[in-house]
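Protocol step 6 of 9: fold each sequence in the batch and record its structure tokens directly after the sequence line. For illustration, a two-sequence batch is reproduced in full.

Sequence one:
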Amino acid sequence: MTTSPSRPVVLCLSGHDPSGGAGLQADIEALLAQGCHAAPAVTALTVQDTVNVSDFRVLDRDWVLAQARAVIADLPVAAVKLGMLGSVEMVDTVVEIMQALPGVPLVCDPVLRAGGGGALGKDDVGYAMRERLLPIARIATPNLPEARILAELPEGTADQCAEKLLPFAEYLLITGGHGDEQEVHNRLYGRDGLRETFTCQRLPGSYHGSGCTLASALSGRLALGEELVSAVRSALDYTWRCLRDAEAPGRGQYVPRRLPLDFCS
């Protein structure tokens, strides 16, 4: 039997969404679409649907460490993608995991609120992520409301939040789309002075799992060896297409269509 070359492996540390719109299922689908292999390690269980989240439970750190260590011992991890962590203890757990992966790019999606607005962690989780995870991440991908929480600037602009956060983060991608503007402006900032804005057409409606989709696609592009700015552009373009083709399986937000309809045919 002949075997194909192995796809790049991305370790995903995130929560489980039983609706399938966000969380680890979103990670898996987006990474498959990039030609990568997702290795999902569950950090939290949630009770949510396409409308909102009503409850969550963070897993014991020993279980998360065991999952990650099993993957690291067996598979050549090319990138790590973070989603929902839910507690300060889980932030520290990720720091410990990354110590075993020197040089591996970490994409930090600071999941602090569900798409419907429900909290996915206490306020001190955002502070811990800023202080301990942003410094070891290759790039963080907050939306503007999350960037305001991380920067402790409730009314801050993307530029103001970036100024506050760049001492911690090497690169920041602050995504837009949360106002009533006709065009969405996604802004990439680098501690090295990089400033680049990616503009796309605003789509109608609201979406469940768009941030997960973007961060996973970006981690996949980095795992494939794509240069950072190009990887950001590729991930944003892919995410926009997923939102354009989104479906409405439930009573709430649209769910991005991350895989083509004929993917398994």
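Sequence two, same batch, same settings:
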Amino acid sequence: MGDHVRAVWESVQKVRTGQPLVHNITNYVVMNTTANALLALGAAPAMVHAAEEVEEFVAIASSLVINIGTLSSPWITAMRLCATRANELDKPWVLDPVGVGATPLRTRVSDQLAQIGPTVIRANASEVLALAAVSSKHTRGVDSTDPSQAAIEPARQLAQTYKCVVVVSGAVDYVTDGDKLLAVRNGHPMMTRVTGLGCTASALVGAFLAVEPDPLVAAAHAMAVIGVAGEIAGARSAGPGSLQMNLLDALYQLDEAALARVRIA
């Protein structure tokens, strides 16, 4: 556990020193939250969505995060262009297939983006099951109706199919490259009462991908960091409203002592 604590702390320091520019094509609901979380940790966020400029912008960014929460035809075009260009430039990128399986449009767009080749896919268990075309309960909106453990094997399959890392978020977060599997046991139950914290996790994965060459390590460290920040914020908060504020403060104040809470195995 001590090795994981030191490694996560080193990753945090790399983000703060390097201040990676994270290009986000994300949903209207979470833009402010994810931008502030990236800033609090030490990264630099950019919310750039226009198809006319995304290819140029990803060229100057350190990493890319694509989140399909609020889809529209122009954004779908921008997502495809940007993901393709990121791969051409060898820029790491994250796919957050919000609500995949809920509608044919979401399923189709998620599948098309996955086929372009993300570095990391981060999703809840129901979304992983839907994306892996594994029989699941009905996916509704962005909430998971399945425990994260139920998606471990489908996540492995996805990782092998798309040659990427897959993160299954839940009470326990599972991170796999199709071979290795890491479990991250950090977080607070109140986090499920605040919209967009899964999307925030995806944004933080983007920041860590910019400074860590191993996507498995980057993803696990990002999930541990938001989990630890959530634990600290949860202990300070009377409810979901104050949790949002305290989470940003926890990310900003995060130090090696706080990261002693990290539980990665």
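Proceed to step 7 once all outputs are recorded. Observation for sequence two: The chain has one domain: 2-261.
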